[in-house]
Each structure stands twice: as structure tokens, then as C-alpha cells.
């Protein structure tokens, strides 16, 4: 009689620098990976914001079966947390779901060892342990296939939103895609003004620079200009056939010009020209303006799951800009002169990973 089959045991350990190549290959091949699982992202966040990166590897017979990337975030304003991953809208465990239990256990032990009272996992399989709080309907992701050509892409957009794009295309606007100093200057200026107007502090410029440098050709900036002035701009990440417009915005004049509408349509067409077949519009909090904006473009929301663990029942950190506790602060921030907001914002935003 044949002996019963027993799967090889899972061993979980922290990755060391020598594992970088194996981690990169795994992320390049495993299902469900995002730009935020890549070593480039982990290293860029550590370099720019000094949040140490930790990668938990679940191995079977010496081969990676699953992994969980993490950043240890520390902020005098928002406390300490272990997050998967810093400044990202995704992360979580990828690979063999059978290893999830061991990885979650190892992550909580790592959080204790690093004195992080909160552990946040964004996406992937969720823990079954009742000590974790699971949110399944707070955020949604938006992904859709790209059309066959520019005209088909425009036709794909629902009628009302398509009309807005056509109005923008009728304006005297230029579109530029690049990675050099001018592109980075335009983008940061537009993005900083955009988030100030929304009432949130801008991330440190070093973060944008580090991501651009680390991703190389897998990151670029598309800017919409009117008479040589940047009015809308987006920094996009490319990962395994998908383009993700990650950090984008527009100045006050962008709305009347429909510059943001032109920007996203132009990015769809450009991404297809460089071989992409999917447009990942990222995540939005359910029932917000951004959520409905993406639905208006024809994207169907897909619920995202997030898990939070707190040590010894400690209250999890609150970094949600829609939290009622920040309402007055947001109103005040919107009134700040842009120069002051740009000096103070990065100091605050460094802890919003």
C-alpha cells in the first residue's frame, strides 16, 4: 500500500538581502502581485521615508511558496504600525494560500518584536483568527481591459463621460510623457497643489523621486499642458501588462479645461501603445467622489478586503482622511498658502504610509 501523501512543511523566515533576486522572480510570476509587492517599491519607500522593509517568506523545501511584504512605519503624530505595504493601496500575501496562517502568525510576532501595536494587511487572503478585524466593504478597486485602438477606447467610455473627454480634446492642450527633471517638476507642482486643495498634506518629493528611479521604465509621468503650463499630471506604474495611474491631480484650471479627463484618456491610449492590456484605476473609498468618478468612466467596483490586528486590544491608528476627527484640520489645510503647505506637508505625510 502506498503511503498517504503529506505536503511538505511550510517554514517561514525573514528574507535577507541575498533573497532579493528570488523575491523579484516570485513577484514577477505569482498570481495576484501588484507593484507594491516588488522589491523596487519596498526599497524606494525605505530610501525616501526611512520606513524599514521586511519580507516574510513562506518556503516549502527551500522554495518560496508565498510571501508577505511589510514596512515598519513610525510617526510621532500617527504612531507605529507594520503595514503591507507603505504608501500603497495594495499588498498582502501572494502565493500559496495554504501558507497564509503561518505568515499571519509570523507577522503578528514581528509586529510585537518591532513594538508596532498595529498591523495592517491590504489585500490578499484574509486571516481567519478572530483577533483580526476585517473590512470588506470600505474600499473598492477598479480594473478594466484596454480597447483595441484609440477610437474604440473613446467609444468604450460611457456617453456622459465620453462627452467630457471630447470637450477636453477640443481645447488647446498638449500631452507629454517622460521621466526627466522637467516631467518630475511639473508633476510634483501639480500634485502638491491638487492635494492641498483637497485638504491633505503632500508626500515628500523624495518618495516620488525614489519610486521613479527604482522602477526605471516601469514608471513614467504624463502631463497635460496649456500654453506650456502644466495643468494636470499623473505618475503611473506599470506591472505585468497593467498600467496604474497612481499619483495624479490637476490645478484649479484643470476642471474647466477637462484636463483630467484628457489625461486619463491619453494614458489609456499611451499604455496600450507600450503593450499594456489593462487599466488599473486603483482603489477608492466606497461612495466617495473618486469612487463615483471611476464608475462614470465605465469601471465596475470590486470590493477590497483589509485586515487590522492590534496588540493587546490597543486602538488601531487612524490615518483615514475621511475620519470625522480630521474634518476641521482638513478645512484649515485647504486655506493654507501653497508654499507653507508644501513645507509642512511632507513632514506630516511621511507617517501616513
From TrEMBL:
InterPro entries: Acyl_CoA_acyltransferase, BioF2-like_GNAT_dom, PEP-CTERM_FemAB-rel, PG_Glycine_Bridge_Synth. Coiled coil: none annotated. SUPFAM superfamilies: Acyl-CoA N-acyltransferases (Nat) (SSF55729). It comes from the Bacteria. Residues 160-295 form the BioF2-like acetyltransferase domain. Transmembrane segments: none annotated. PANTHER family: LIPID II:GLYCINE GLYCYLTRANSFERASE. This is FemAB. It comes from Novosphingobium fuchskuhlense.
Amino acid at each position: 500500500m502506498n503511503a498517504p501523501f503529506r505536503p511538505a512543511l511550510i517554514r517561514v523566515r525573514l528574507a535577507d538581502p541575498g533573497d532579493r533576486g528570488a523575491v523579484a522572480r516570485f513577484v514577477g510570476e505569482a498570481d495576484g502581485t501588484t507593484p507594491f509587492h516588488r522589491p523596487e517599491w519596498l526599497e524606494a519607500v525605505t530610501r525616501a521615508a526611512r520606513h524599514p522593509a521586511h519580507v516574510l517568506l513562506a518556503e516549502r523545501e527551500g522554495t518560496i511558496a508565498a510571501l508577505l511584504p511589510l514596512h515598519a512605519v513610525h510617526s510621532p503624530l500617527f504612531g507605529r504600525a507594520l503595514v503591507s505595504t507603505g504608501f500603497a493601496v495594495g499588498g498582502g500575501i501572494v502565493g500559496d494560500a495554504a501558507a497564509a496562517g503561518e505568515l499571519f502568525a509570523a507577522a503578528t510576532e514581528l509586529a510585537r518584536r518591532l513594538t508596532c501595536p498595529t498591523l495592517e494587511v491590504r489585500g490578499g487572503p484574509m486571516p481567519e483568527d478572530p483577533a483580526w478585524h476585517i473590512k470588506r466593504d470600505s474600499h473598492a478597486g477598479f480594473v478594466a481591459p484596454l480597447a483595441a485602438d484609440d477610437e474604440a477606447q473613446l467609444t468604450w467610455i460611457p456617453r456622459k463621460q465620453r462627452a467630457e473627454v471630447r470637450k477636453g480634446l477640443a481645447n488647446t492642450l498638449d500631452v507629454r510623457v517622460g521621466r526627466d527633471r522637467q516631467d518630475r517638476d511639473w508633476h510634483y507642482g501639480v500634485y502638491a497643489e491638487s492635494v492641498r486643495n483637497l485638504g491633505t498634506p503632500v508626500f515628500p518629493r523624495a518618495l516620488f523621486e525614489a519610486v521613479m528611479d527604482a522602477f526605471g521604465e516601469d514608471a513614467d509621468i504624463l502631463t497635460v499642458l496649456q500654453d506650456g503650463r502644466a495643468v494636470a499630471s499623473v505618475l503611473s506604474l506599470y506591472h505585468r501588462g497593467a498600467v496604474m495611474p497612481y499619483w495624479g491631480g490637476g490645478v484649479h484650471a484643470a476642471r474647466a479645461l477637462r484636463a483630467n479627463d484628457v489625461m486619463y484618456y491619453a494614458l489609456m491610449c499611451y499604455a496600450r501603445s507600450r503593450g499594456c492590456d489593462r487599466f488599473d484605476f486603483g482603489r477608492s473609498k466606497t461612495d466617495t467622489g473618486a469612487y463615483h468618478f471611476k464608475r462614470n468612466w465605465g469601471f465596475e467596483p470590486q470590493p477590497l478586503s483589509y485586515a487590522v490586528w492590534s496588540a493587546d486590544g490597543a486602538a488601531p491608528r487612524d490615518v483615514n482622511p475621511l475620519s470625522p476627527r480630521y474634518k476641521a484640520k482638513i478645512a484649515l489645510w485647504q486655506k493654507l498658502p501653497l508654499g507653507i503647505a508644501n513645507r509642512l506637508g511632507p513632514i506630516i505625510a511621511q507617517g501616513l504610509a
